């Protein structure tokens, strides 16, 4: 007995109508003999059993029982492979990404400094080819993997050093989209949000930090009190404005000196500086001025000694 079967197949690319010829009875091509649905060719094939043929190059078959395969979008290719079973096997050219819902290759989003669309990759092969993409292998770019249901589009990380490799890996302590979040037990430097995640200090370091803050506040209040009393006593003793005016600027310079010293020491201890963020991005070529600034903040003992010596000299001259 021979019959005709009509089926509606749904896929991400749309709805397809398949027509199949059914043979019942003792035929070797019957469903009973095959133990399955032998009346339809599999996805990635076209034709009718037993003459099922794989979809040719640059074509794909998203459903069973297709009489012919569908062409990849313009600017796309299957990279020489046959038997593609989904549009995800179609690779758009460099500068384009696959929009599977519209079955088209769309232009890569702008600006180019934030988004990158490599050619020769698909949602099916990105996990195996991402390590060989030279443009993103040095880090600074992120992509969500697996990319089965997402466009193959790289996005630049806000903290370039947080993203390493070309397969969506994050630097230690980082996680989430664009590696923008810190894992448990890690946090960002409170001086700036554009920095790497660092391990949270232990209880002893926190206690020392809080104690140093309270001590610094006490010293500041004492200096303010001392300066006020000195000015009042000077007026009572009949000192001239010129003599009194030499002491207050010296105290202001001293407080600035101590503040910068404290901030510098804390930054160097946490190893979370702007210089590290710059140096982590291998694509950045620092100018002479930038190199000097990086040297100033990278925790260089020579720079710190020069700063202390210069500030101390100015302070002594002012007091004298």
From TrEMBL:
Occurrences of domain Tyrosine-protein kinase ephrin type A/B receptor-like (ranges): 51-90
Residue stretches spanning the membrane: 207-227
InterPro entries linked to this entry: Growth_fac_rcpt_cys_sf (IPR009030), Tyr-kin_ephrin_A/B_rcpt-like (IPR011641)
Record keyword Signal present: yes
Signal peptide (residue range): 1-32
Keyword terms: Membrane, Signal, Transmembrane, Transmembrane helix
Keyword Methyltransferase: no
Record protein name field: GCC2 and protein GCC3
Protein species of origin: Toxoplasma gondii ARI
Record lineage: Eukaryota, Sar, Alveolata, Apicomplexa, Conoidasida
